[in-house]
Amino acid sequence: MASVNPFDLSDSEEEAERRPNETVDTERSPSDGAPGPPPGNLFSPPADAEPPTLLLSSNRTSPSGEGISARVSVDVIAAQLLRDQYILTALEFHTELLEAGRELPRLRDYFSNPGNFERQSGTPPAKDQVLGPGGPLNRAGSISTLDSLDFARYSDDGNRESDERVAESEVASQERKNFKSSPEIQEPIRQLEKRALNFLVNEYLLKNEYKLSSITFSDENDDQDFELWDDVGLNIPKPPDLLHLYRNCGTPLPSPRDTVDVSVGVNFGDLPGNCIPQDPPKKPDLLQQQQTEVVQELEYQISLLNNEKQSLAEQIKKLQRFVLLKLSPAFLQALLSFCRMCSDSRLGAEVSRIADSEESVMLMLGRCLPHIVPNVLLAKREELIPLILCTACLHPEPKERDQLLHILFNLIKRPDDEQRQMILTGCVAFARHVGPTRVEAELLPQCWEQINHKYPERRLLVAEACGALAPYLPKEIRSSLVLSMLQQMLAEDKADMVREAVVKSLGIIMGYIDDPDKYSQGFELMLLSLGDPSERVVSAVHQVFIPAFAAWTTELGTLHTTLIPSLLARIEKLLMQGEHGLDEHKLHVFLSALQSLIPPLFAVVLQNAPFTSRAKLDGDTPAIEVTRFPRPASPLQDVATIIGSREMLSALLLLYDHQLELEGTTGWDSLLWVVNQLLPQLIDIVSRINVTSSTCVHEFSRFFWRFCRTFGKIFTNTKVKPQFQEILRLSEENVDASAGNDILTKATVPIYATGVLTCYNQEEDRKLLVGFLEDVMTTLSLSHAPLDSLKASFVELGANPVYHELLLTVLWYGVVHTSALVRCTAARMFELLVKGVNETLVAQRVVPALITLSSDPEISVRISTIPAFGTIMETVTQKELLERVKMQLASFLEDPQYQDQHSLHMEIIRTFGRVGPNAEPRFRDEFVLPHLHKLALANNSQAVESKRIDIATQLFEAYSALSCCFISEEVMVNHFLPGLRCLRADMEQLSPEHEVILSSMIKECEIKVENRGMADAQGSMSIASSLVGEDAKTKFLSKMGQLTTSGAMLANVFQRKK
Predict the structure, then answer these.
(1) What is the DSSP letter of 388?
(2) pTM of the model
(3) What's the gap between Cα 350 and its chain centre?
């Protein structure tokens, strides 16, 4: 099939020859009866005819002699477009038919066949070669289906088809001679021929799954690189594969037809008299000005003629001198031949022919630039960009313009940021100059050719060009082909920086799109890009794509009616599906998108308010406080940018606060939707998330904080807080889980405390937060409810040092509370606060409060302080503070009144196992391990078996954690090994499986100690590294994984072994 150039428009010249039998009735002029076009195809008029029209309504001569109205079918239109090579129009026609649900088989088959779009390569014709309709052409731009483009055809050095030549005496002529000769008289194969055939054979083996043969073949020809055709050594493009050569049997491939640009003009003399525009009567001043201009023009012509007169006079003098010399012209020519000049080469011909007009300058640049570019250093090639663009804009030949733009996009192999910006600046300037039609026909094909380029910098250039050219493209192309191309790159490109640029360009496309049917495609693109694994891509989505998409939906009126409800529905569906495990990543994706829509939503509320028409810009408008809005992620999320200016936003905010405070929300539909639909739905979603998930709590907390700060303090106090307070009625009845009223144990508490009550940091706001936390702590404690919601609040607030003093105030309220239950809760909350508070506050506020609680009359309160003391030992470095804590823990262990306190011993062992690996080594060796030894020894004589099981459970987990620490030899012999032996004694009666593990641990430790005694002492050792045998290590770790999953499971094991 012959290749065509769909970007060059020409009439079909062969159609009349292919269909000689088809005729149509000719139209006759009612005036002269002249015959119409000759018989042939209705859509193939002669060269001097007017351009064909596709849909006609004219009087035709029917067989019956009556005039009828003819309407051409869509299939005939498609055939005509393809026949006359209107490929772009045919592609748009095909797209519109697909969107209308009317697929046309002719167009489907044409655009799905890659053969219709293959470029042909070959040697350019000689100077004296006449090109017929099927003559060879250099490469020209084409429109193709994206899956059929040959992107690797052209090198970075420009159009190789016009630069490189085959050494005909060495290769081409010999190949033709050998092909026609018989096998008996063939000459021996030459080295270059052998390398070329080797390359094609290896290519054939790989394509047909003969991989082992290909590997063997490559090994036998190890002097050749089969990945690169240029390694063969021939300065010609890669030929077709073996199968293609075999099928053609040496027949030369057809070349694309040459094309000619034509234009049609109108001679006003041919128009009727009343169609010729008549000049209006001229005023005297205008007439005088025109006369002056005529005089100036004539004077200029006179000066030119005088100059020409002088030049001719000088030539006459020269000729007269030669005449006087009486030298023959042949002698003069022979004499001048001694001047060394060269005009028989390409460059010599260009030098000897000086351009004498603007058009000839453009033609000269078009001829010379392809030869200049390859010889310029890569680092300096951007200096050629203005020259290339200017020539491409003004050159009259489409083929040369296409070649120049191809050079522009291939100018630099891997352009850096600055070079890409320069190329893009040039592309935009080109687009402004030539208009949408030429941008579509000439620039877009260059982008398509490089969409799958092997270098990411080149694909990045394509992605950025799509966004930069968006304002200058036809709207139909912008919302169809360009959008589809960017969608393909977003889904398939593996380079983060390319996908980032794609997302930004998609945002620009969304800013110029005007087809409401593309909303669903835009929504899916937003979700796809938000789920991208690259942080830089997701950041670009929030900075560019979502604001642009939100602006478009605002114009459509669907931001708060469709877009935001769609995201909320997906969050609710996610919560329903995640009863057994929430997908926190998807929740983050949806919630972050919702958070980025807060500024445009607030802008919609302002722009659709009852007072919007009263907003006036004057000099008295106060400036907006810097802290009035959260810091936007990009300028596109700045409410002032969305509204139009900071002055207009300031004026609207004054009216907004006044309306909320004094006039109410009657008739304010957008705000009523936020208050009556959005807020209740969000609060319901909050109550259903897992309060123990710190990630979910943090995400929703940040969302509500931004929401309240954006909508303002009056809105937060009058609309948001009342809805939360209505469901968070603080009383003991509210946490009656049996009645289903357990809202205080849900995530609503921490999100309200950290997302709503912390929005504003004035004194009354802090008092409200302190009072809320105190009430929650009291209510949960007195009702024996889980403390997860209170812990989540402390964790979220404790991450910010600003709230440490406030949280200590709340805890001191619990320390001095009259109820022992509240005091126990306060003691346990100190454990969460210690890790984030600086050591000064720990010494001044935390430790005194804990020591106060450690002497509480209630033993449960004293036991509750042990985890907090352990956390202090794990995190604090001040020796005096550590000694105070150590003394308090020692009093718990050594005071006779605690000797039989089973709960206290359990808490201490659990705390030692948690903080021991991270505590100071001296504290671990001198305090933790000796006391664990004592507790293990005491447990051997425990009479109550249930208590013995509990202590053994905790001791096993504590020793498991401490076994990975470095322990000195002395402590190992005096405390660690004796403690393990005591624990093994319990295990012999309770669980033989555990006894086996402990025996293995003890044996390996003893061997290690003996070996260290014989060798040089190293000072410390690790129990985990002492398990020298792989079998013992594997057995130990597998058993540990089975038996230390939880204390409850281990206790059940003990119960079964009784």
Answers:
(1) H
(2) 0.63
(3) 49
